[in-house]
Design goal:
This is Lipoprotein. 42% of the residues lie in helices and 23% in strands. By secondary structure, it is of the alpha+beta class.
């Protein structure tokens, strides 16, 4: 190696190191995004299971909701005990799902959603629910990070108005308080 080729070799070596660093950071951020997506999916599934698999589970529902979404937020700041008590009253005469098919919950279309006048930015998800022998139905959920987990801050029934589209999440969450 001569003095003339030394700078070229150094540049080539530096370029290779830079490329490897970029590749490893891309891989790392892809893994982080996959972990985040899995956490959002788990939170959405857990919340919907607690809510819609009858009888509903108030304790689990409250754990998966943001304080602001809990029905007792205005009364006591959204404490877990206050939330559970409120839902236990609401669900006191709720029928069970005994005799009905298993509730299948599928979470898809996880995406970033912008803040609105009443909701923080976060992740949106489409949740499709189905029981054997019944029509499927869909909800759009907004989830936000709180502490070390994702929590539900908004739910919106997608309804038949959006039956024509596979991914109504952003539009539904934007237009539902």
């Amino acid at each position: 190696m001569t003095l003339r080729t030394l700078p070229r070799a150094a540049v080539a070596g530096l370029t290779a190191v830079t490329a490897l660093t970029l590749l490893s950071s891309c891989s790392s951020s892809r893994q982080t995004a996959e972990v985040e997506r899995a956490k959002v999916k788990h939170a959405a599934t857990s919340y919907m299971q607690a809510w819609l698999d009858k009888p509903s589970d108030p304790a689990d529902m409250c754990r998966w909701q943001t304080k602001a979404m809990r029905p007792n937020h205005e009364a006591d700041g959204g404490t877990i005990p206050g939330c559970i008590a409120r839902y236990e009253d609401d669900f006191a005469e709720q029928d069970s799902d005994a005799g009905r098919g298993h509730l299948d919950i599928r979470v898809s279309h996880i995406q970033n959603v912008a803040a609105t006048a009443t909701q923080p930015r976060g992740k949106g998800a489409l949740v499709t629910l189905h029981r054997s022998g019944e029509e499927p139905f869909r909800y759009a959920l907004r989830l936000v990070p709180q502490s070390v987990t994702w929590r539900v801050s908004q739910t919106a029934d997608v309804g038949s108005r959006y039956r024509h589209t596979d991914d109504p999440v952003d539009e539904v969450l934007e237009h539902t308080p």
